[in-house]
Amino acid sequence: MGGRHPKHWHCAIYAPDEKADFIPIPEQLWKLYEEDRDMKRGLPVRKLAKDGDPLFYLLDEHGNLVFFGPTQMFRLPYDKGILEFVPHHLRDENATDMAEAIFGYVKSEQMPYGKSRACAGRVFFSDAVALPGQGELTSDSIVTPQILSSPKPSTFQHYLTQPDEAARNRANLRHYASITPDQTVVRGHKLYWHRKDIELSDYTYQGSSEDREEHKKQLTGIQPVCPGARFAFRVYFENLTDEELGALLWALELPAGCAHKLGMGKPLGLGSARISVLKLTLTDRRRRYSALFADTQWADGSGDGTGNNQKAHFKRCFEQHLLLAITPEDRGDAASFAETPRMRELLTLLSHQNSPKGEQARYMTIEPLNEYSERPVLALASSIQPVDIHEMLQQPIPEPSPMPQSKPVSASASAPQRAVLLTKPQNKRAQVRIESGAELDCRGFSSFAKEEPGTVCLVRVIVASDGKPLRAEFINWEVSA
Length: 481
Description:
Layout: H1 27-38, E1 56-59, E2 65-69, H2 98-103, E3 105-106, E4 118-119, E5 123-125, E6 129-130, H3 156-159, H4 200-203, H5 209-214, E7 231-232, E8 235-237, H6 242-252, E9 260-261, E10 272-273, H7 285-290, E11 293-294, E12 297-298, H8 311-325, H9 328-331, H10 341-350, H11 381-384, H12 389-394, E13 411-413, E14 417-421, E15 429-434, E16 439-443, E17 456-464, E18 469-477
Helix pairs in contact: 6-8
């Protein structure tokens, strides 16, 4: 190729040889190609869409297809897939683990019909409804969070267990061509640190207008829930053993100082939430069906109110069951289930009270500096922010504080008036400028609204008792005569 161009060679692709034998593509190789093709890399990829599209391929010494791709330097798959690095006893489809037994499962079509292939769960969750008297539950305006990358399996230094020397020398890194399980296995679950003190700038996109235009397909709008917002939901369960109910309680109600990570923006510090089990009600089947009424109510067989007192009993049943089931290597010298090596790392990461600050907890970057290029190995959580698990378990789980009684705000709605869109509607909300010149958050747009900034609409303005406009409610689009 002529001119100043980094590409020195160009491929000449000739017309197909009609007399050549077809090279079959095994289904497994085609699935690998589709996975690689659909992986988001931030760069355009030429796809093989129809017969006649040129492709490059590699054959072994026996003439069998090794792999193929749309460019000469296509990516070769590893001999082993990620699933093969999961220990055999954990991916045996003939076995049903506790999580599958509780929540149900659908296994591969290789399993015979019946419960060995699919089974319904025995736990059901209601919607979480905001408790009254809290005022505004979400931020006043829509914000644009930082761009988060999708998981990249090629980052094997994070997803596979690594020897200690790998942190000092990249040549010792284990990868998908390493021997499993002797040299490496999958490392575990992916979690992010809690971040107690974060500012708006810590999780919002800070790019220029040119950057926003370049990455507009990757940007989105969110309205984070305000800190301290409270919701209530119910969990219904049936036919659980004491050990299974203990597992459910353990998963929902974490030890003191710990919190769950829920929703979007977890790597940026969002999504920290604490769950408290306020009431545990057990049903006595015999009582339920032996009478139609109980006093003036339907007889539902609900217990005598001692379920809450049994929470600790069910949790102990689960812990004892696990301690007997795990191997001595997995248990180590732990005196309790929470002190086993893996649970120690989990609770360290889930500790909101003792989460690390600043640089230690932030999201790794690709631009302007690619912090993944040297393939750093992530240290164990307990080596970054040690937590005394024994002391954590001694602390009582705090009861939720009573809801504060917020003072109601007196407000009224104005007559319909014209407003101009300042932003494109997202999540049923947008910024508008009303006739007085004030810029307000406007709600009530259709989920399908695609109108551009500058479009005129009719709104109703919500005004405080002192005359200050608070927000706007969408009515309709202005129709030209």
